Amino acid sequence: MSKSHRGRVRGHKDRQVCRQVADAVGWFLAEVDDPVLSDLLVVQVDPAPSAARVLVTLVPAQGAIDADLVLARLRDRADDLREEVAAEIHRKHAPELAFRVADRTDWSGVV
Q1: Element at 100 (helix H, strand E)
Q2: Is the distance from CB of 94 to CB of 86 less than 8 angstroms?
Q3: How far is CA 60 from CA 9, 11, 16, 76, in A?
Q4: For 75-103, how does the pLDDT look when each residue is reduced to its tens digit (9 = 90+)?
Q5: Are 34 and 98 in contact (CB under 8 A)?
Q6: DSSP symbols for 43-93
Q7: CATH number of the domain bearing residue 58
Q8: What is the number of domains present in the chain?
Q9: Phi and psi of 5, rounded to 5°?
Q10: Backbone phi, then psi, for 26, in 5-degree steps?
Q11: Which residue range forms the structural domain that includes residue 37?
């Protein structure tokens, strides 16, 4: 297998994992009994730098939100969230999750 082919396969697998993580986090946020977290939307998931660690970008569904509060609530629910992701993805190991909260206006065309 050539080096470029391996790179394309890895890129495809990374994108696949990112889509699965986006779905799992989205489902978790929709079902969680926390008004701060349930108001969030997943707008992007990127390898950071590979699919072993991914960066999940969230925006509030409505209005503005305190990013520090969101990140604290995500840390509080980290074990539950990782368990949800592990159940959804099709890999031996669930990726490490990192989060950022973006301003909704930055993602208005995406949401």
Answers
A1: strand 96-101
A2: yes
A3: 34, 29, 25, 18
A4: 999 999 999 999 988 777 889 999 999 98
A5: no
A6: EEEEESSSTTEEEEEEEESSS---HHHHHHHHHHTHHHHHHHHHHHS-SSS
A7: 3.30.300.20
A8: 1
A9: -65, -45
A10: -60, -45
A11: 3-107
